[in-house]
Design a protein that fits this description.
This protein has 2 domains: 1-165, 3-Layer(aba) Sandwich (Rossmann fold), CATH 3.40.50; 172-325, Tumour Suppressor Smad4. It is 28% helix and 29% strand. It is built from 7 helices and 16 strands. A hairpin with a 2-residue loop joins strand 8 and strand 9. Helix 2 (29-46) packs antiparallel against helix 3 (50-56) and helix 4 runs parallel beside helix 6. It starts with 9 loop residues before the first strand and ends with a strand. The relative contact order is 0.14.
Length: 334
């Protein structure tokens, strides 16, 4: 595939490990060990196991040791990756929290090194720039979205820069508000209240409109169809079994990653004098949309891929249009 003219610039996307996040909270390794040991010792003491409590209150904590091993493995992998990318081109290394601030227009390739979720986070910001996703720790991560390992990276990136590569294009979802704010989703959107209070809104789809009160709406892509939205089907199956109602056990919501359609479902819709439960599940093909008008006075949000900190406010008067995005993620597979 021949690429449009871009500077041969490489962006590497990393993420903080669990150890780094804990270190930000507790400041020192010793403090982390102390807190972990004391919490476990207290739990054992509450359970009446004084011997276990005494053992847990001293010595090394196994969880912290695992976090440290993960941290060291990841840091070594990032260092090796940077060495492999010594190709004579500029290389910019960024943490995922800075993705919204980086311009990718003049970038030839984005190399993601981390877990699957990091690929999903990155894909929403890089436009049509090809993504080379690297598994930094194959013994720890399955890496469904991470087809490459470190020894392969140099050759793969060279192929991308030359334009002799193949991608797997992945459908994204898009939401746009009435003020032109826009958000993409690699896996799914959540639309509703930020807490456990009822989400109130008016839903329009397929020419039908309904006032609803629910636990919010999920909209899923093919990549996300085995995730959050699949749990809704699992719950439905369980309820139907209990009620001895007829439900197809082989019915699946799973879609291929490149299918140009989305699945949507209303979680726990509540029937009342003013709210209905007729529009609860369906699909959106390219060109179709969900139209959702907020009826919440505060706390309404829209976020994607489980990242609650990166959200659009969705309070009274806000109108969201949700559909298949024209942009697709391009994951390099060959």
């Amino acid at each position: 595939m021949k690429e449009k003219n871009r500077q041969p610039r490489i962006v590497v996307v990393t993420r903080k490990t669990r150890m780094e996040n804990l270190r930000q909270r507790w400041s020192t390794r010793g403090q982390m060990h102390y807190m972990f040991r004391q919490n476990k010792a207290y739990a054992a003491m509450q359970g009446g196991d004084l011997e276990a409590a005494a053992m847990l209150s001293s010595g090394e904590d196994e969880d912290i040791l695992d976090f440290e091993d993960e941290f060291e493995t990841y840091q070594n992998a990032v260092g090796e990756l940077q060495s492999e990318l010594n190709l004579g081109y500029p290389v910019q290394v960024i943490d995922r929290e800075y993705l919204p601030t980086v311009g990718f227009d003049m970038c030839s390739v984005v190399v993601v090194i981390g877990q699957d979720g990091l690929v999903a986070n990155t894909a929403k910001y890089v436009g049509d720039v090809p993504i080379v996703a690297v598994n930094p720790d194959p013994g720890r991560f399955d890496g469904v979205l991470l087809p490459w390992q470190l020894p392969q990276v140099r050759q793969v990136v060279q192929r991308v820069i030359k334009g002799t590569y193949r991608t797997r294009d992945i459908t994204l979802a898009e939401v746009q508000l009435q003020d032109d704010q826009r958000l993409l989703a690699f896996n799914d959107f959540y639309i509703g209240a930020s807490s456990h209070v009822s989400s109130r809104y008016e839903l329009t789809v397929g020419g039908m409109t309904e006032e609803q009160s629910s636990s919010g709406i999920l909209v899923s892509t093919g990549a996300g169809s085995t995730g959050w939205i699949s749990s809704v089907l699992n719950m439905t199956r369980g309820v139907c079994r209990y009620l001895q109602s007829d439900v197809r056990p082989d019915k699946s919501l799973q879609m291929d990653w490149d299918e140009r359609r989305l699945l949507w479902v209303v979680r726990e819709p509540f029937r009342s004098r003013t709210t209905g439960v007729d529009l609860v599940c369906g699909e959106l093909r390219a060109g179709e949309e969900l139209l959702i008008e907020s009826r919440m006075d505060s706390g309404g949000v829209i976020f994607s891929d489980g990242v609650e900190s990166d959200f659009l406010e969705f309070n009274g008067g806000a109108i969201a249009r949700v559909g298949v995005a024209s942009q697709q993620a391009r994951l390099v597979v060959d």
